[in-house]
Design brief:
Structural class of chain B: mainly beta
Helix content of chain A: 10-25%
Radius of gyration of chain A: 17 Å
Low-confidence stretches of chain B: none
Order of helices and strands of chain B: EEEHEEEH
Helix content of chain B: 10-25%
Oligomer: heterodimer
Order of helices and strands of chain A: EEHEEHEEEHEHEHEEEHEH
CATH superfamily of the largest domain in chain A: Probable tRNA modification gtpase trme, domain 1
CATH superfamily of chain B: Folate-binding superfamily
Number of strands of chain A: 13
CATH topology of chain B: Folate-binding fold
CATH architecture of chain B: 2-Layer Sandwich
Number of helices of chain B: 2
Strand order of the largest sheet of chain B: 3-4-5-6
Mean pLDDT of chain A: 91
Largest interface: A-B, 14 and 15 residues
Strand content of chain A: 25-35%
Low-confidence stretches of chain A: none
């Protein structure tokens, strides 16, 4: 299946004009590149870039945001307080990002139903001193994977993202290739990764800028299956 | 590149920041004179001294306060606005009611 076969009711990626994968799959009401090429697994370990923009994410801000999170996100029960600019993966698979004193984003697990994120959205808009953030629409979500991620980011970003000073779970809110971005250090299936969340209006530009920086490490786009299946 | 230390994100290039004007006490918009309101909204004292200013760290959307010397451009300190402002300001609806 390619992007032209996409049913009109399904969300398209922000990159649908520039990027075409080999296989797509339905995820969170959108079409996600499942496989970019037959070489995805090896590519992800070396230097891969994945577009997860259609995958589910949400955010909330306000004095009551922590209590809404712990009430509606089952995985939060086993989690201690997350410091600002740190992220934690819950036992249920979601990543919770704390971006400020009272601001939290939740990235979906990529495998679950994400019903808890829907409940979170609803609760955020119905609770006093808690406001939903529409980062699903406002931001693109890319994942840079593999052994060379720090070297690639060193070309694009002034903050030192080397493993020694930027371990898994750390967040940098900074400028990447001159556009504002949130960079989160993670691992997917044991592969080191940076999630990069950036303004959706410059998604195509940033995608190409990162691919360009990846070129000297033989970097290439990958599909989501390699990180989830 | 100049470096400014954001209280939330740490030292960052100055290109990540946006100036937001002097920190001033807001007069009561319902009772103050037009001149006092214009002074609050538009005019700066513009003196050579250490001033308190609003700055925005754009990538994180975080507003904070910096104390800066206007001649040497030295940043004396930066801190979270909650050190000065710790209650929410509710605006009176007096004007709307009158209309």
């Amino acid at each position: 299946m390619n992007m032209s076969d996409t049913q009109p009711s399904l969300k398209r990626s922000l990159l649908y004009r520039t990027t075409t994968g080999e296989h797509y799959k339905q995820q969170d009401g959108g079409m996600l590149v499942a496989q970019f090429s037959a070489n995805d697994a090896e590519q992800a370990k070396r230097c891969g870039l994945l577009d997860l923009s259609v995958a589910r994410r949400t955010g909330l801000r306000g004095k009551n945001a922590p209590s809404v999170l712990s009430e509606h996100l089952p995985g939060m029960a086993n989690t201690s307080v997350i410091q600002a600019n740190f992220a934690e993966q819950l036992s249920t698979g979601e990543w919770v990002l704390r971006l400020g004193k009272t601001e939290y984003w939740v990235l979906s697990s990529l495998t679950g139903t994400n019903a808890s994120l829907d409940a979170l959205d609803q609760a955020a808009s119905q609770t006093a001193d808690c406001y939903p953030l529409y980062c699903q629409s406002s931001h693109a979500w890319f994942v840079l994977t593999g052994d060379y991620i720090s070297e690639v980011m060193a070309k694009l970003c002034a903050v030192d993202l080397n493993e020694r000073v930027f371990p898994v779970g750390k967040i940098a809110q900074t400028s990447v290739a001159r556009v504002n971005a949130i960079v989160v250090k993670q691992t997917y299936q044991g592969i080191p990764a940076f999630s990069i969340l950036s303004d959706s209006s410059s998604a195509e530009y940033l995608w190409l800028a990162i691919l360009d920086a990846m070129q000297e490490f033989n970097g290439q786009a990958i599909g989501a299956d390699v990180l989830t299946v | 590149m100049k470096i400014l230390t954001c209280p939330l994100n740490g030292p960052r290039n100055i290109s990540e920041f946006v100036y937001g004007g002097e920190v001033k006490d807001m007069p009561d918009p319902n009772t103050c004179s037009d001149k006092a309101w214009a002074d609050y909204v538009f005019y700066h004292d513009n003196l050579i001294q250490i001033v308190k200013e609003w700055w925005l760290h754009a990538p994180s959307g975080y507003w904070f306060i910096a104390e800066r010397h206007t001649a040497s451009d030295e940043i004396i300190k930066t801190y979270d606005p909650s050190e000065i402002y710790n209650t929410r300001i509710e605006f009176s609806t007096q004007q709307e009611e009158r209309a």
